[in-house]
TrEMBL record:
The lineage of its organism: Bacteria, Pseudomonadati, Pseudomonadota, Alphaproteobacteria, Sphingomonadales. PANTHER family: METALLOPROTEASE PMBA (PTHR43421). Residues 120-224 form the Metalloprotease TldD/E central domain. It comes from Stakelama tenebrarum. One of its GO terms (molecular function) is metallopeptidase activity. Residues 26-90 form the Metalloprotease TldD/E N-terminal domain. This is TldD/PmbA family protein. GO terms for cellular component: cytosol. GO terms for biological process: proteolysis. Residues 231-447 form the Metalloprotease TldD/E C-terminal domain. Belongs to the peptidase U62 family.
C-alpha cells in the first residue's frame, strides 16, 4: 500500500532518473487516488463505482526547452522509458526563456503545515448507500415533489507528492466526502428540477442526508409556476449558491497566464480600484479542512494567506514562476498543475469577506429586481469583461422575494459589476470559492 513517505520517495527517484539521463532540471508529481461512489433512484440502488489510480507526471528541462509526460506504469523499466521519451521531446521543443523550475531560494523547507485534510475514514458501500437512500427519501417526502433524478454519495482519498531536482520533496493526503440529491416537482410541461449537495474533507463535517434531501425537495417545489419578467435594467442579487462564480471570473482575470498573454480585462488594473470600497477578497490555503487547502503549491513553494483585494484595490496577480519571470515579479505561491500539461496559476480557498448589511436589508431596499439562484452557460468574455448568462431564481418586488422566474438572461460588464457590488453579511464557508449574497445594481435583465 502506497504511503505518504513512499509517494515522496517515488517522485524523488523519478527526478533522479531524469537528471542521470541528461536533464538539466526536472520535477515530478504523483497522485494516488482511491474513490467509491453509490447512486440510488426511486428507493433502489442504481450504481456502485470503485476506482483506484496511480499516475505520475514528469517535466524535464534541457536548457530552455522543456517537455511533460505522464504515465500510470510505475515499474522501473517503464519509468526509464518515460524519462527517455520526455528528454527526446524536450530536445525538439521550442526554446522558452521564461521556462524553468521555481527559484531555489523560495522553495518550502521543513514539514508541510498541518491542515487536517485527511480523516483516514474507510467508508463502506453500505454506508454510502444508506446516506443516499435517506437523502432521496427526504427529498421525495417534500409535498409537491413528483419524481426523482436520484441521489448519490461518495468518498475519496488521494495522496499527492511533488519533487524537484533542486531541492524540494513533499507529500500529503486528502480525503473528501460528498452527498447530493436531485428531484423534480410538478407535472407535465410545468415540471421543475433542483438539487442540493454538500462536500467536506472530514466525514464528520458532512451535512445530514435528511437536511440535504429536504433542501433539494424544497428548492424544486419553490420553482413551480415561474413568472414572466419584464426586460430592463434592475438590481440583481446573487445567492451564495452562485455568488462564488464572481470570484472565479476574478481569479481567471488575474492569473499570470492571462496577464502575460494580454488577454485579461484587468490587464492594467494592478494597484487600482477594481471593486467598491470596503470589499476585501482573501485567499487562505491554510484553512483547516478547507476544500481547496494545500500544503505547498504546484512548484514546491510555500503557500500563505494573502489579500487579493483590499478595500476594493487589486493587490496582486496570481503568479507561477514562468509568469513571474516574464513580468519581472516574484512568484506568489499560486502555481497549479495536473499530472500532465503546463503549469498555471490558481487560488486556493478564495473568499469575499462578509459585508455589514444583512441579506434581508440588501433585498428590502430593492423595488424591482431578481434574486439569482442558478446560472446557466459560460457567457463571459475574459478579454473584455462582457458578461451574459442564462439564469433562474426569484422576483424581488417592493423589497420581498416573491415569485420564481426562469429562462432569463442577465448581462453587464464585469468591470462595472465589480464596482457596483455590495456584499451581504451572510458569508458561509461551504464551497471552494465562497462569497456572501451579492447585490449588483444596474444589470440588464432580459425576460419577455
Amino acid at each position: 500500500m502506497l504511503t505518504i513517505d513512499k509517494a515522496r520517495e517515488r517522485v524523488q527517484d523519478t527526478v533522479a532518473r531524469a537528471t542521470r539521463a541528461g536533464a538539466d532540471a526536472a520535477d515530478a508529481m504523483l497522485v494516488r487516488n482511491r474513490s467509491l461512489s453509490v447512486s440510488v433512484r426511486m428507493g433502489a440502488l442504481e450504481d456502485v463505482g470503485r476506482s483506484e489510480s496511480e499516475e505520475l507526471g514528469l517535466r524535464v528541462f534541457v536548457g530552455n526547452r522543456s517537455a511533460s509526460i505522464s504515465t500510470s506504469d510505475l515499474l522501473p523499466d517503464a519509468l526509464d522509458e518515460a524519462v527517455d521519451r520526455a528528454l527526446k521531446m524536450a530536445r525538439e521543443a521550442p526554446e522558452d526563456r521564461w521556462a524553468g523550475l521555481a527559484p531555489r531560494e523560495r522553495l518550502m523547507h521543513g514539514e508541510p503545515p498541518l491542515l487536517d485534510l485527511d480523516d483516514g475514514a474507510e467508508v463502506e458501500p453500505e454506508t454510502l448507500k444508506a446516506r443516499a437512500l435517506i437523502a432521496e427519501e427526504a427529498a421525495r417526502a417534500v409535498p409537491g415533489v413528483s419524481n426523482s433524478e436520484g441521489a448519490g454519495a461518495g468518498a475519496n482519498r488521494a495522496i499527492i507528492a511533488l519533487a524537484t531536482s533542486h531541492g524540494f520533496a513533499g507529500a500529503y493526503a486528502v480525503t473528501s466526502h460528498g452527498l447530493s440529491a436531485s428531484v423534480l416537482a410538478g407535472e407535465g410541461g410545468g415540471m421543475e428540477r433542483d438539487h442540493a449537495h454538500h462536500s467536506a474533507r472530514h466525514e464528520s463535517m458532512l451535512e445530514t442526508p435528511e437536511a440535504i434531501g429536504s433542501r433539494a425537495g424544497e428548492r424544486a417545489v419553490s420553482r413551480l409556476n415561474p413568472a414572466r419578467v419584464p426586460s430592463g435594467a434592475m438590481p440583481v442579487v446573487f445567492d451564495p449558491r452562485v455568488s462564488g462564480s464572481m470570484l472565479g471570473h476574478l481569479m481567471a482575470a488575474i492569473s499570470g497566464g492571462a496577464i502575460t498573454r494580454k488577454t485579461s480585462f484587468l490587464q492594467d488594473a494592478l494597484g487600482t480600484q477594481v471593486f467598491a470600497r470596503g470589499i476585501t477578497i482573501r485567499d487562505d490555503p491554510h484553512r483547516p479542512r478547507g476544500l481547496r487547502s494545500r500544503a505547498f503549491d504546484g512548484e514546491g513553494l510555500p503557500v500563505q494567506p494573502m489579500a487579493i483585494i483590499e478595500d476594493g484595490m487589486l493587490e496582486t496577480w496570481l503568479l507561477d514562476s514562468a509568469a513571474a519571470r516574464q513580468l519581472g515579479l516574484s512568484p506568489t505561491g499560486h502555481a497549479a498543475r495536473g499530472i500532465g500539461g503546463n503549469i498555471g496559476a490558481s487560488a486556493a480557498n478564495l473568499y469575499m469577506a462578509a459585508g455589514a448589511t444583512p441579506r434581508a436589508t440588501l433585498i428590502g431596499e430593492i423595488e424591482e429586481g431578481v434574486l439569482v439562484t442558478e446560472l446557466i452557460g459560460q457567457g463571459v468574455n475574459g478579454v473584455t469583461g462582457d458578461y451574459s448568462r442564462g439564469a433562474a431564481g426569484f422576483l424581488i418586488e417592493k423589497g420581498e422575494i416573491t415569485r420564481p422566474v426562469s429562462e432569463i438572461t442577465i448581462a453587464g460588464n464585469l468591470i462595472d459589476m465589480f464596482r457596483n457590488m455590495t456584499p451581504a453579511s451572510d458569508l458561509d464557508f461551504r464551497y471552494g470559492l465562497n462569497a456572501p449574497s451579492l447585490r449588483v445594481d444596474g444589470m440588464t435583465v432580459a425576460g419577455d
